Each structure stands twice: as C-alpha cells, then as structure tokens.
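Entry for the shared binder. Reason: the reviewer on the internal report wants the predicted structure included alongside the sequence.
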Amino acid sequence: MGPLPLDVPVPGSSFTDLLDAVGAGPALTIPENAQIPSVPEGTTVLAMRFDGGVVIAGDRRATEGHLVAHRRIQKVFEADRLSAVAIAGVAGLAIDMVKLFQVELEHYEKIEGVRLSLEGKASFLARLVRSQLPLAFQGLIVVPLFAGYDELENMGRVYTFDVIGGRYEEIEFGSTGSGSRLAKSYLRTAFRPDMTEGEAAEMAVRALVAAAQEDTATGGPDLTRGILPNVMAIDAAGVRELDDDEIRPYATEAVETIR
C-alpha cells in the first residue's frame, strides 16, 4: 500500500477509514431490479449476563429457503480478548463483517496503544451494520449480537442491534435471529442474575433447544452427529470457548426435558 495522497485527510485509528482513504474500501453494489439469489442464512444467537461475566451462544444450522444449507456453521466468534460477536442473517456477509470487526479492534489497539472500551466496540460494530444498509434494502440482512466484559465497570454487558445500525444495551439477556422471540420467552421465565458461568451456559443451551422446537431455521443439538451449539464465556480472565465435553451434558438434558 503506497503513501496517502496529499489531498486526503489522514485517517485515525479506524482501519475502514484507512481503506476508504486509499480507495481500497469494499464496493459491493447490486444492480437495480436484480434478482437476489437464495443464500444461506443463520439463526439463532443469544447472550446473557451471569455473576462476573457473560455467556454468548448460537445454534449451528444455516438455512437456504426451506432447506438446510449447513449443519455445522459457526455463529459465535471471538472479537478480541474480552469480547465476542455472534451473527444472524446472510451468513457470508455476516462472517466477512466479523472478520473486518476483528481487524478493526486489532488495528485500533496497535495505533492507539490501548484497547478500545467495550462501549466503543459496540458503537463501531453498529457503524459496520449501518454500512450494510444498501444491501439490507435488497434483502441481504446481517444483524449481529455483541457481548463482552467491561473492564471499567467490572461486569459483563450485552448489546443487540437493528438492521439500520441501532445499538441497544440489554440489562439481562439478548437474542437475535428467527428464533429470538422463542429464546427470549424461555429466558424470561428462567433467567437469574446470580447464575454461575456453568448455569448460564446450561440455560443458553436450553433456550436454543426451546427455540428449535418451533423455529425450523434454528437447529437443536444433534446428539447422533455430535453437532452441539457454539458457546463462549467471557469474564475478567478473557474469552473461553466451551468444548463439546462441557456442552454435551447440557444438550442431552435439554433435549430430553424441554417440550
């Protein structure tokens, strides 16, 4: 990458602004009246606070119309050491957004020498969602879910977003995707603010199973194939992805008991 033109303002700590300044920013346009192809979409993701942190989880199914496109898609990603992001909507665009978000956070830390605050991370993710608005009008919608540990407040925090980049902090839990209403309905009856990490992870799996009972786009645990939800726990020590051995007992019990 060559030097910036003299008539272009020097970008700050945003990697996206740097790309735009050198004319290398993404330029995805859709012709007017174009037919949007059927593409894989992913749902459902959720996050909830527990005593000392936050858990974020997602099912593994991606659908293409009324068909299952993928059974093992990853929907929960580590954003940096103290935060994670989960995706719902058009899978390909959502994964690219997550990768750009990860680069943005790393770029900011290298340029500024400090980690961006959790509030700042959520605000920047909202900006990335807003940049996808032209695609959203074409039906290619991406809506993330963001959660992390706030070092300033010493607590876990959860943020949801709308399709135009609106950002909302959730006090207890949040969810997005086609099965989000079902998942939140379950969490409203079961959530406790004093849960441990293990209890929160178990409740996240149970909420996904509850959503999968009615929403065909949400995949419940497939114990025969060994397909289990993605679950991450975040506290002062950082992001930790729960392995299958930890999740399997929760999934087995949930599949047997939730109706």
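Summary line for the report: The two ends are 57 Å apart (CA to CA).
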